[in-house]
TrEMBL record:
InterPro entries: Pop5/Rpp14/Rnp2-like, Rnp2-like_sf. Part of ribonuclease P, a protein complex that generates mature tRNA molecules by cleaving their 5'-ends. Its EC number is 3.1.26.5. It comes from Candidatus Acidianus copahuensis. This is Ribonuclease P protein component 2. HAMAP family: RNase_P_2. The gene is rnp2. GO terms for molecular function: ribonuclease P activity.
Amino acid sequence: MIQMIFDILIFVWLLFLTMLFFSKKQINIKKIYNKRNIKAKRYIIFYIVSENKYFGREEIESSIRSSVKEFLGRMWLDISNPKLILYIDNEKRGIISTNRAGYKVILASIPGIKEINGKKALVVPLRTTGSLKKAKKLLGIR
């Protein structure tokens, strides 16, 4: 009997608190933005250490893509989608474009590049930036 009275009192108390809560409309529903939904770009500045002076843009991009595919597979290659935006032949420096989800994958797989088109080469990442303007400024291009 006492237990039943106690249960009824708790039920009434919880009902009272619920009605009080809803009457003041304190429910604030905020839309939580997922960072993966935001298509933010990342730009990786790199340089190439090699005895050979000239590499083609397609050769460099294909070696980067094959390195990512070899290191983490085709799925991460599709997610990161690396693109060679700019390459300066005489300085052997360039910019790779990727997204926020894939820039760490690119940074992890770039040291796996040991040769480009059959010629020994080493690709060294220098810096990651969030804007192309800053990346060009770091390369010395206005």
